[in-house]
């Protein structure tokens, strides 16, 4: 029994001695300077810049840099301040300065624009948020908030005037540390936009638009209306009027390109079951595919009507005779172009 008691006492002494030695080593650990520091508050404390600072760790010694920025503390200046607070024997590891960064939450302008567009979506005649363009009253690139403001942007006051597109919106962002949220107020204008085909150069009437003549831009819907043309429906089309560079195209401004021009020589085609005749003519009208134009038959000198069926090609319209009287049955066949070729089917 006595022997067991002595063994237990010895083990307890060894354990206590090891714990005391570890505590002594911890208390005697030399303070070490940190090379890079990130702080979240508006002050820099000794514990931020010095490892193993002990009871002095919570002492504030410098103001922190501005939100989202980085500053530097010269080592000699820092050691002087530390000695004033009885923190001595700091191992500098040959550092010349300590870099201090103030953490923050960054709100870029695009994120703010997106939030405003979401708030105004389908309000007072506006459409989807994706089509709302926001312009701030004052130039805004980004905002830096304390990193404790982790909440979502919540709109608390919304004012929008559809007559001039002006908005006045206040957001609140919750703070993880305090009960007081941050309030952010933004003013500016918001307009609904649509994608529009825009001319890169001035065009004349009847010009055919090439791919290089048209680009896509977002334009205010109120400016271009609902008749706006897209790029796919613009390239290869013919301008129906003179237009300037930078002008947004409307569907009414464009048409299919003319396959037959006025005063152009054309091929006349006369076709009925079993007969296919061609001749030469001169167009009196311009027209695109499917248009009815007047054409002079150059051999008979008669004016006939035909349908534009291809480039420089017109199919003669043959009126169907009325089979109501004997006279109608014995009437002469309608005029056709003088034959140049004939093929029986």
UniProtKB/TrEMBL annotation:
It comes from the Bacteria. Coiled coil: none annotated. Its main location: periplasm. Residues 325-345 are annotated as: Disordered. Gene3D superfamilies: 2.30.30.760, Antifreeze-like/N-acetylneuraminic acid synthase C-terminal domain. Residues 1-21 form the signal peptide. This is Flagellar basal body P-ring formation protein FlgA. The keyword Signal applies. The keyword Signal applies. One of its GO terms (cellular component) is periplasmic space. GO terms for biological process: bacterial-type flagellum assembly. It is found in: Periplasm. Residues 194-255 form the SAF domain. Keywords: Cell projection, Cilium, Flagellum, Periplasm, Signal.
């Amino acid at each position: 029994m006595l022997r067991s008691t002595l063994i237990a006492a010895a083990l307890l002494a060894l354990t206590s001695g090891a714990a005391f030695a570890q505590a002594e080593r911890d208390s005697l650990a030399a303070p070490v300077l940190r090379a890079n520091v990130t702080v979240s508050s508006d002050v820099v404390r000794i514990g931020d810049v010095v490892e193993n600072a002990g009871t002095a760790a919570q002492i504030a010694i410098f103001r922190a840099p501005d939100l989202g920025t980085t500053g530097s503390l010269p080592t000699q200046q820092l050691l002087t301040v530390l000695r004033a607070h009885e923190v001595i024997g700091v191992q500098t590891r040959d550092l010349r300065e300590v870099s201090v960064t103030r953490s923050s939450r960054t709100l870029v302008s695009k994120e703010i624009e997106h939030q405003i567009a979401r708030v105004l979506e389908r309000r007072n005649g506006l459409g989807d948020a994706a089509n709302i363009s926001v312009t701030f009253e004052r130039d805004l690139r980004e905002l830096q908030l304390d990193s404790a403001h982790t909440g979502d942007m919540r709109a608390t006051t919304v004012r929008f005037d559809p007559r001039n597109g002006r908005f006045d919106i206040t957001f609140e962002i919750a703070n993880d540390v305090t009960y007081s949220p941050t309030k952010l107020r933004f003013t500016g204008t918001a307009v609904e936009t649509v994608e529009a085909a825009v001319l890169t150069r001035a065009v004349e009437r009847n010009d055919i638009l090439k791919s290089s003549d048209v680009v896509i831009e977002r334009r205010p819907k109120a400016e271009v209306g609902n008749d706006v043309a897209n790029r796919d429906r613009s390239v290869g089309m013919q301008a129906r009027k003179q237009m300037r560079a930078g002008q947004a195209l409307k569907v009414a401004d464009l048409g299919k390109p003319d396959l037959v021009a006025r005063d152009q020589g054309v091929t006349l085609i006369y076709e009925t079951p079993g007969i296919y005749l061609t001749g030469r003519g001169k167009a009196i009208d311009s027209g695109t595919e499917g248009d009815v134009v007047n054409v002079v038959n150059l051999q008979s000198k008669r004016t006939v009507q035909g349908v534009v069926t291809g480039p420089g090609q017109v199919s003669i319209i043959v009126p169907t005779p009325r089979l109501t009287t004997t006279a109608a049955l014995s009437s002469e066949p309608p005029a056709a172009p003088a034959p140049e070729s004939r093929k029986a089917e």
